[in-house]
Amino acid sequence: MTERARQASAFFVSFGPPLSDSLRMLAELTRFDLTGTTLGLVALGVFVFAYLLVILEERIHLRKSKPVVLAAGVIWLLVALAYGSHPEGKDLPGGHLEERILHHTGEYGALFLFLLTAMTYISSIASHNVFLKLNAILVSRGFSLRAVFWATGGLSFVISPVADNLTTALLMGTVAVSVGKGNVPFIAAACTNIVIAANAGGAFSPFGDITTLMVWAKGKVETAKFFTLVAPSLVNWLIPAVIMHFMIPKAQPEPLAKEVELKDGWLTVILLFLVTIATAVTFHAVFHLPPFLGMTTGLGFFMIYGWIRKTIFHKRGKGEDINVFHNIAEVEWDTMLFFFGVILCVGGLQELMFLQKASAYLFDPVTGVGATTANICIGVLSAIIDNVPVMFAVLGMDPAMDPLNPGVLHTPMADYQWLLITLTAGVGGSLLSVGSAAGVALMGTAHGYYTFGRHLKFLPAIAAGYAGAIVVHWALNAPK
Asked: What is the rounded CA–CA span in Å between residue 72 and residue 65?
């Protein structure tokens, strides 16, 4: 243990704040480069193997949460062994790594509570037949296949900033499959278009994509500045959509007669959801409170509304009962646990200093490749590795710090660059079908029609949109 860290430890424990605080402060002083050790390399291999299983989810039928949750425990065990075998690590207090784990768990807890509330509202809106009604309207109008292609893409771009890209893609994918009726070329093109549009629409809203939410919650970019990405995101969708338009068969599907009745209270639930989002924004922007607290407060609104419906209106025979906890139970728990596993896995690699080494290579102003090149490459990487762990890794790198000399500051990454990485990580996942939650989900619901290979067919068009979005962002938002 270094003399500086030993003195700090003795001071904090003997005369300083409570033990948990002293350990947290000491944790910031003590971190070992274990990237070249056998245990460190094994930990990296465990993560790579676990993520390979995630990519192969549809082929091997192993839910994506299972390998990463297991890998998280294994990686942290390896971290503990690596620290214990380090000459200076043996002198660290027993709670040193516990404080680190609790820090990363806190990161996950904030994300979990935010998503829990959002998914609960989405579940309730769906149970009120709002999404089915929209589906029925689009399917029953007798649009041409090209019209449905543009309608589903356009709605995906508009809805995803509020409803999130995963929910939006599932909804619009259902429409594409219903209208296509086994027309493989149309369904494949329409689903690809939906994934691109949903990811692009989510890139300019703090609530449209997990990566955008993470950047916003960390306070890297002010809320209003995200909307400077509207034009780049639109270009990202429109370029491949225009190219793909000419690949859609000129056919007229048979109109479907499908009546769907909206359930009583549907508008109130939607309004409560909008109020909840406004509460989260207000808590964060005005009172400097974490956004998840505003969301959980909004969940409280919904719970009280459900109680009022049950105890007052429903007992009088007015309207249907609302079971809030039933909506909570329908949350996509596989996704929730997947995020837990990923965040803890990446956190473990951070403790071994893999992220710091990567940050030095990518973002160091002297020896690195430069922020612009790094952010563009990271966006491409998010097509292979889901954008959530990629963005969590970027936030963990903290490009404003000298990663190999803690406490030495570099010039913080400008808003333009944070917006660039938000854009590229959000839309870069569209390059491959496995690069985003929207693509993975559609491969399951449109099984046999929308596949990895059929999405790959449109890669040149999607890449053109990716490049176009970056150019437009540079033209409109780069510092003059």
From this structure: 11
Virtual torsion, Cα 46, 48, 49, 53, nearest 10 deg: 130
Among 339, 352, 389, smallest CA distance to 105 is for: 339
Q: Is the pLDDT reported for residue 1 higher than 50?
A: no
CA atoms within 13 A on the CB side of 435: 26
| ∠ Cα 28 4 22 (to 5°) | 45
Q: Please check whether residue 12 is in contact with residue 26, taking contact to mean a CB–CB distance below 8 angstroms.
A: yes
Mean pLDDT of 252-260: 66
- The rounded mean pLDDT for the chain is 79
Q: Give the residue-averaged pLDDT of 172-183.
A: 81
What's the pTM value of the predicted model, to 2 decimals?
0.71
CA distance linking residue 214 with residue 156, whole number of Å: 21
Tokens 């190219």 correspond to 243
Q: Which amino acid belongs to residue 115?
A: L
**Per-residue CA distances from 389 to 157, 172, 212, 249, 416 (Å):** 23, 26, 13, 38, 21
Kindly report, residue by residue over 439-478, the tens digit of the pLDDT: 877 876 677 788 878 888 999 999 999 999 999 999 998 8
Tell me the two tokens of residue 67: 């390998």
- Mean pLDDT throughout 16-27? 40
Contact call for residues 298 and 323 (beta carbons, < 8 A) = no
Distance, CA of 85 to CA of 199 (rounded, Å) = 44
Measured distance CA(206)–CA(341) in Å, rounded: 22
| Per-residue CA distances from 235 to 166, 200, 203, 362 (Å) | 20, 9, 12, 27
Q: Which of 67-76, 215-224, 281-290, 471-480 has the largest mean confidence?
A: 67-76
The DSSP bridge partners found for residue 409 are 401
Burial of 415 by CB count in 10 Å (0-12 exposed, 13-18 middle, 19+ buried)? middle
